[in-house]
Write a structure and sequence with these properties.
The protein is α+β, with helices and mostly antiparallel strands and 326 residues long. The protein has helices at 17-39, 44-57, 101-108, 118-127, 141-151, 241-247, 249-256, 268-283; strands at 5-13, 77-83, 89-95, 115-117, 188-193, 199-205, 226-229, 233-239, 260-261, 264-265, 287-293, 298-302, 306-312, 318-324. Strands 4-3-2-6-5-1-13-14 form an eight-stranded mixed beta sheet. Helix 7 crosses helix 8 (268-283).
Length: 326
């Protein structure tokens, strides 16, 4: 028997001081909702789905309720879930009118397909018995204000939220300047290890503010924003998706777990750091990453200002905090 573990994140980038408590409390609640069940034998795949459900329902984050608005003023959601035992993967993208896109992704795993998008994914969800809601129920006033403010900016690009601070050295530790008002990137994710030794990961997001309709980022792409493999571990990413996709960040991070340091398996913290360094070196990307290896060790790293996260501690208890760029 393996001692279960779970770690979740609530997005990277600059999290304003007045919103950090909400980010930390939400992550803690997601771990607390499933930690006891994991200890009682819940499969890792179910644990990450339910943990992400908690975060999707929390308007603090850019996932489900509270997601950002695209350039048309609409919410389009992406999500993925992966089973490290079988490498089975389910994903959806650009879905509207569903609170829990990760639930649709989980249903996709039970079909012959891996990835459904847009109207086809929505039709599949209804056929699978997943309840649709009025899309306006996902919208929060915070994101309406941000949409109106950004729409009024001449020449605004979603990349503006990811540019290093003016004058900062272009390194992995370069500070990131977010447009005012601050724009936390609240993609959510979870990685779990169950008592049977199986690893699973899931990620859910609304994407980037003012994104082009139909844009799909890293979160629902296998090996980019989400990955799990019992031979190594699992990872979930958050950040600038176009860069994460180019280096297959979560798969790269899990591959770094295959190495050894002084005869011992590479630590997830080191693997996460190597993956983020790869991202910045190759594509000048910025992101945050949570990891869990097959031995039950956690890893957290970012080259953004912050990443909100929480994890279950060995022997009981939950650690929840905003990880600050090192």
């Amino acid at each position: 028997m393996t001692e279960p573990r779970i770690i979740v994140h609530g997005g990277a980038w600059t999290i304003p001081a007045d919103r950090r408590k909400a980010h930390v409390d939400g992550c803690r609640a997601a771990v607390d909702a499933v930690w006891g069940e994991l200890q009682r034998g819940m499969p890792a795949l179910e644990a990450v789905r339910l943990a992400v459900n908690v975060l999707e329902a929390d308007p603090t984050y850019d996932a489900g309720r509270g997601a950002v608005l695209n350039a048309d003023g609409q919410i389009e959601l992406d999500a993925a879930i992966m089973d490290g035992a079988t490498l089975n993967f389910g994903a959806v993208a650009a879905v509207r009118g569903f609170l829990h896109p990760v639930d649709i992704a989980r249903k996709v795993m039970d079909t012959e397909f891996c990835f459904l998008v847009g109207e086809g994914a929505e039709r599949f969800a209804r056929e699978a018995g997943i309840e649709a809601i009025d899309p306006t129920e996902l919208v929060v006033e915070r994101e309406v204000r941000l949409f109106n403010e950004l729409r009024a900016r001449a020449g605004f690009s979603t990349h503006d939220a990811f540019r290093p601070q003016a004058g900062a050295a272009e390194t992995g530790d370069a500070a990131c300047r977010c447009p005012e008002p601050p724009m936390p990137k609240g993609t959510v994710g979870a990685v779990a290890l169950d008592a049977a030794g199986n690893v699973a990961a899931a990620t859910s997001t609304g994407g980037t503010p003012m994104k082009r309709p139909g844009r799909v980022g890293d979160s629902p792409l296998c090996g980019a924003g989400t990955y799990a493999d019992n031979e190594t571990g699992g990872a979930s990413a958050t950040g600038f998706g176009e860069g994460i996709i180019r280096v297959l960040l979560t798969r790269s991070a899990c591959d770094f777990l295959r190495g050894e340091v002084n005869g011992a398996p590479s630590a997830p913290d080191d693997a996460a750091r190597e993956a983020i360094e790869l991202l910045h070196r190759r594509v000048s990307g910025h992101a945050g990453l949570i990891m869990l290896d097959r031995h039950g060790r956690y890893g957290v790293h970012c080259n953004t200002e912050h990443i909100a996260h929480a994890c279950a501690l060995p022997g009981g208890g939950i650690h929840a905090d905003v990880h600050v760029r090192r």
